[in-house]
Design brief:
Elements: H1 6-31, H2 40-54, H3 61-77, H4 82-101, H5 115-135, H6 143-154, H7 158-176, H8 179-201, E1 206-212, H9 216-225, E2 232-234, E3 247-253, H10 254-267, E4 272-277
Antiparallel strand pairs: 1-3, 1-4, 2-3
Helix pairs in contact: 1-4, 1-5, 2-3, 2-7, 3-4, 5-8, 6-7, 7-8, 9-10
């Protein structure tokens, strides 16, 4: 078994605790007080907490999420990845404990007249928090596990399964709160998902370019010595013509893609250029990959 460096352990623990703290602030300050059950076990726990309050007893949201996730963890344990299991358990406990512990000390922002602002703020803050937890390589449990099981048994895409599971929870919340609150909860969930992607993937500033041209040697030379970027020649063949067509591949920064198009236009205006956005790029000239 590979031993994990202590610096990695400290970094992951910091991300988990810090992310869980932000998540707790987001739900305690902006979502739970206004009945915004934005999907996940936290949203389901928010609904159950409101029902319990109407019946005259308290049912803390954080405690509920821990209990629910303990039941779901049986599905995660099967993965056999001890590091992932440890980080996930840490995320579940940190989020659940902090969600309840911070209720007495955190102020409640916004008002029932500003549900849209509460949904936006809650989605942004919880998204940043969950994104930091995910960057550690862990998870916070929840309905993602249920969605993965549903996807395996029904052959539907995982993303669709997540939408269905969270959609059911939000629809259920409308029966306890209101349709308006459920719609704003959906807004919060959507924003949170987008923010999570931005935190996990980082700003997508790199571009991958594929260039097909009879002047491939000249263009490659310009990329190497004018843009100072690496360039790889891929061997390809035109299906219709049957002729060999070398394809140049390179990864550039956002601003450099404009210069690349100018270079190609000057060398061969008839060239085929495909430029796509990439999530992350590691290696020489870009950021260093780490564990």
């Amino acid at each position: 078994m590979t031993r994990v460096p202590w610096r990695t352990v400290v970094r992951d623990a910091t991300l988990i605790v810090g992310g869980s703290l932000l998540f707790a602030i987001g739900v305690d300050c902006f979502e739970i007080p206004y009945g915004l059950a934005a999907g996940g076990v936290t949203g389901l726990a928010t609904v159950f907490s409101a029902i319990a309050e109407r019946m005259g007893f308290a049912l803390p949201v954080g405690m509920q999420t821990i209990v629910m996730n303990v039941l779901l963890m049986a599905l995660v344990v099967r993965s056999g990845d001890r590091g992932y299991i440890a980080r996930t358990v840490g995320g579940i406990l940190a989020c659940g404990i902090l969600t309840d512990a911070l209720v007495p000390v955190l102020p409640v922002f916004g008002s029932e007249k500003d549900l849209l602002l509460c949904a936006i703020a809650g989605g942004v803050v919880t998204g940043i928090g969950l994104g930091l937890v995910f960057r550690s390589g862990g998870n916070t449990g929840g309905t993602d596990i249920v969605a993965q099981v549903l996807a395996r048994r029904t052959a539907m895409p995982v993303g669709v399964a997540v939408i269905i599971v969270d959609g059911v929870i939000i629809a259920f919340s409308a029966t306890v709160f209101s349709v308006e609150q459920a719609l704003y909860a959906a807004v919060a969930m959507f924003i949170s998902g987008k923010v999570i992607d931005a935190v996990v993937d980082g700003p997508r500033s790199e571009r991958a370019a594929y260039i097909i041209s009879v002047e491939h040697e000249r263009i490659a030379n310009e990329i190497l010595y004018t843009l100072n970027r690496g360039c790889t020649e891929l061997q390809a063949r035109g299906v219709w013509s049957g002729n060999a067509r070398p394809v140049l591949f390179c990864v550039l920064g956002r601003s450099e893609s404009v210069r690349l198009k100018q270079i190609v236009a000057a060398c061969d205006p008839e060239a085929i250029v495909v430029i796509s956005e990439v999530h992350e790029v590691f290696g020489e000239g870009f950021k260093q990959i780490d564990g």
